[in-house]
Amino acid sequence: MDDEKLILLVQERDEIYNKLNPRFKLAEKKADAWMDIAAEMGVADKSFCEAVEALKRACALNEARHKNPAVHAFGEMIVSTICSMNSRNQLKAMQQVTDTVMKIKLQEDELTEEQSYTKF
């Protein structure tokens, strides 16, 4: 597949990625744009559409991971700090951070589970 051609074709159809484009929210218009691209790429079949859907899911997942800039910055700070330690302290710090975060996550999961039981 010609990657450069694909990139240019996507760039020409900003309703696919530009949230300011009024057609961005119209699923039919975006689907039409993708089908036009597929036709121009000579791969207008189901496998192309499946690949596009997989790419969209991966992008959405990546975007969700970075939604909170404070969390992202905190993660970078933790990694930078741990990297500046000697090997022994790196292991100790990683274990303590993991233990603390997992403990909080488990508490959150238990609370969510308890709340879901009280709804019934």
What does this entry look like structurally?
This protein folds into two domains: 3-65, no CATH class; 69-118, no CATH class. Helix content is 77%, strand content 0%. The chain is built from five helices and no strands. The mean pLDDT is 81. Residues 6-50 form the MADF domain. InterPro entries: MADF-dom. This is MADF domain-containing protein.
Q: What distinguishing features does this structure have?
A:
MADF domain-containing protein, mainly alpha, MADF-dom, 2 domains, 120 residues
Quick recap of the structure?
By secondary structure, this protein is mainly α.
Judging from the principal axes of the Cα atoms, what is the shape?
elongated
- Tally of DSSP β-strands: 0
**Which residues form runs of ≥5 with pLDDT under 50?**
none
As a percent range, the share of helical residues equals over 70%
Number of helices: 5
Spatial extent as radius of gyration:
22 Å
pLDDT averaged over residues: 81
Major pleated sheet: none
- In N-to-C order, the SSE pattern is HHHHH
Domain count: the total is 2
* Strand coverage percent: under 5%
Name the structural class.
mainly alpha
Whole-Å distance between the termini? 52 Å
Pfam family, one: MADF_DNA_bdg
Domain MADF: 6-50
InterPro entries: MADF-dom
Organism: Eumeta variegata
